[in-house]
Amino acid sequence: MNNEIMNNEAFTQSRHGIDDVEIQEWLESLDAVLESSGTEVAAEILERLRAHATVNGIDLPFTANTPYANTIPHRLEPRFPGDQELERRIKSLVRWNALAMVVRANRVESNIGGHISTYASAATLYEVGFNHFFRGRTEQFEGDTIYFQGHAAPGIYARAFLEGRLSPQQLENFRRELKPGGGLSSYPHPWLMPDFWEFPTVSMGLSPLMAIYQARYNRYLEDRGLKPVSDAKVWAFLGDGETDEPESLGAITLASREKLDNLIFVINCNLQRLDGPVRGNGQIIQELESAFRGARWNVIKVFWGSEWDPILDRDTEGLLVKRMGELVDGEYQKLVVESGAYVRQHFFGSDPRLLQLVEPLADDALRRLRLGGHDPRKVYAAYKAATEFKGAPTVILARTIKGYGLGEAGEGKNVTHQQKKLNEDELRVFRSRFAVPLNDEDCVEVPFYRPPDNSPEIQYLRARRESLGGYVPQRSVRAKPLVADHDELFKEFHDGSDGREVSTTMAFVGMLRKMLKDPEIGKLVIPIVPDEARTFGMESLFRTVGIYSSVGQRYEPVDVNTLLYYKEAKDGQILEEGITEAGSMASFIAAGSAYATHGINTIPFFIYYSMFGFQRIADFIWAAADMRTRGFLLGGTAGRTTLAGEGLQHQDGNSHVLALSVPNLRAYDPAFAYEIAVIIQDGIRRMYKDGENIFYYITVMNEQYPMPAMPGDVTEGILNGMYRFRASGNKKAKLRAQLFGSGAILREALQAQEILESKFGVAADVWSVTSYKQLYVDGNETERWNRLHPGSKPRVPYVTRTLGDAPGVLVAASDYLKTLPNMISKWLPRRLASLGTDGFGRSEGRAALRDFFEVDARFIALATLHELFIDGKIERSVIDKAIKELGINPEKLNPVVS
Ligand SMILES: Cc1ncc(C[n+]2csc(CCOP(=O)(O)OP(=O)(O)O)c2C)c(N)n1
Ligand SMILES: [Mg+2]
């Protein structure tokens, strides 16, 4: 902290008319201590004084803020080790090419979009990183992990172009990825550029949270001995506007609690977001400082560039820092767009002594006083301090100008975020401002510019990257495939539970327990729970594999005398995340992408209350999909009518519909243990042996019933989405039906089968539909293929093929929305009646809920009879009788709207 400035501020802020001399004496004695014993001793004295004051009833106001000044005073600045002039030229070329990409793309096709201003403000923040800090992956070193701000992507591409990693053609096709030869994705998307981008960051707020959990996961891998200890860093570059997203700051206390000094946030504080100022009426940097300091982060503020240093030095009274702290961000933004004379009058003009300080500077020079985030020396000092800091994560709050260098075309203006086109004059000005070697005529064509390979710029840039271990960003899959021979492991679950009543959740936990003991995957399985392990009956794992805690267990757990005590351990395997589905999902992503990030095949199993998954954190799931994350999401306590009691906000009948939207996600609603065993075994093989970029969503329920043995080899059916679970024994019946059930509702279909047969003479087959999504995907794919290949023999969708000539009416029931079965109806041989749980859940028992939502055996039977009636196979009187006998109230509440 800058003691000098603190003292000076206090000095100028004497609010109670205390004698200047008295204050001066105090200050001088502190100065004397500083001189003789240094900052640490001085700090200790101040701490003691503060404690003494508190004991004596002095109520010192809490402030987590330091003055509006650079955290690192220039006298403590390290020497800048680079060639500043060359780095400036390189940066100017990156700036130019980034701008050229966007301007060119929008000339070819207006409205293709792209952003100039974000990177323009962040260029120095990135270039100092590229030239001095970001370490690539080598044989010996795992490399730093960098989350690039999504909207800065053009700058990152432009640099890769100078590095020779991207071609002019690729730059030309920025945002036109479908052009021959391929283009560049708008933002960081590993799905679209799997050799380049590692982390999707453009949905703002996700990457700060993901970065925190990534840093923590790196420690977890080290503490469990799965990777060597290293000082690799996780860098996350964010916008200041982005910090308004709740997720951005939502986990910062975890980072400090876990002492993640491997984590560095760089917040580009250009004081602007898309529409206007982030805090026009306040100070975003000071606000963030207090939030992060309050959360015990190491905060480094980089406000002012080197040009300010001599002025600050001349200001022995601390008037300037005081003045700096007075302006709100809206005023600061105005200073950016105004002339030097305006700055003199409105900023320095508040006090004649301030005016005197800048008297030697012409108006032009006043305009050119750089901000800290544009000064490589200040940025370097901050990064160096951040990388060397021990014991806490660091956040760098760097003051910049949005649209820096765009001048009239948008520098500091409210419209700058959307600026995509520059006119000829503006291009020339930008070219001259950054000394890009293009003449007046050429420059208006906005060509990409790359100096020859043997130029000092390219040589320097390459040498720097070489000494830092290679290029970043770069994504590669480094983990070796697993053998994944797990027949033995899963076989036990094919046999059923011998009449014992268990839930699919219990069955899954049993599998998890076995997987944790497996010689190949035991160590790689990562159970993740958001304070819900007991809900899922996983507490036995606490003891057996332990809960991860970076400090072990510093207390004797209250239940130490019990068998299943709450065991925390430094090498604990369970990630017990507390009540944060978002945080748990971030751990899932870190673990499920470790095959690329770390070359380690960790297999996450994230089990949570299913309603709080897709419904709450779908955007993280989408990011996981983009990132090619592998692993298993387990939606626990699933099913709108299966989760009894909990009511409207808990009972999930939605997640399987929401899961439809994620293209590389396979979603299953299994009913029996063997189905889950088949799905997980196959999933591990596909993801970790065959390297498929998919992940899984499996719902598990808490209803207990006997698990049947696998009825023959139905593996293919389970995986493809449906198989006949129990055919009717009555082959002669005239009245026929096919009943589709899923999850716990499959048992209602089985009961309906009995009712129909015994009471109404209807012979029904019962099918377990494990995945409507798989059937839907297959149906669509088949249809598409047929449309594109009209000359070939048409293919038949799996569901059509599988049903074959199964006779009778078709009725489907699930614990999810009716739309799920409906979406496959076009590939069915006949009309489908769908029963589902559209509507709000409510607290009740299972039977009442299934009656309310009309998905129980009676309603399945009724729907079947009704279908037969429509087909003219039975009289209406049969239905009337059924309604009566089954005890159905036709005037009951409509679950959809009541
Ligand atoms: C979740 C989400 N909401 C909205 C947007 C749209 N958006 C893109 S950039 C932007 C403003 C960014 O401001 P800031 O974070 O300050 O970054 P800067 O460009 O100023 O560096 C907005 C609102 C988004 N990308 N993600
Ligand atoms: Mg901003």
Question: Can you offer a commentary on this structure?
Answer:
The protein has 898 residues and is an alpha/beta fold. Helices cover 42% and strands 10% of the residues. It contains 37 helices and 20 strands. The strands form five sheets. Strands 10-7-11-12-14-13 form a six-stranded parallel β-sheet, with helices on both faces. Helix 31 links the parallel strand 17 (735-741) and strand 18 (762-769). Helix 4 runs antiparallel to helix 5 (117-132) and helix 25 runs parallel beside helix 27 (614-626). The chain is elongated. The protein starts with a helix and ends in a 13-residue tail after the last helix. Bound molecules: thiamine diphosphate and magnesium ion. Magnesium ion binds at residues 239-241, 270, 272-273, 278, 402.
Can you lay out the helices and strands and say which pair or pack?
Elements: H1 3-12, H2 20-37, H3 39-55, H4 84-108, H5 117-132, E1 145-147, H6 153-162, H7 168-172, H8 206-223, E2 234-239, H9 246-250, H10 252-257, E3 263-269, H11 284-294, E4 298-302, H12 308-314, H13 319-324, H14 329-337, H15 340-346, H16 352-357, H17 363-367, H18 376-388, E5 394-399, H19 424-433, H20 440-443, H21 456-467, H22 487-491, E6 501-502, H23 504-517, E7 525-529, H24 539-545, E8 547-548, E9 568-569, E10 575-576, H25 581-592, H26 594-597, E11 603-609, H27 614-626, E12 632-636, H28 655-658, E13 665-668, H29 673-689, E14 695-699, E15 705-706, H30 715-720, E16 722-726, E17 735-741, H31 745-760, E18 762-769, H32 772-788, H33 798-803, E19 809-813, H34 819-822, E20 832-835, H35 846-852, H36 857-870, H37 876-885
Parallel strand pairs: 1-2, 2-3, 3-5, 4-5, 7-10, 7-11, 8-9, 11-12, 12-14, 13-14, 17-18, 17-19, 19-20
Antiparallel strand pairs: 6-15, 16-18
Helix pairs in contact: 2-3, 4-5, 4-6, 4-21, 5-6, 5-18, 8-25, 25-27, 31-36, 36-37
The structure holds thiamine diphosphate and magnesium ion.
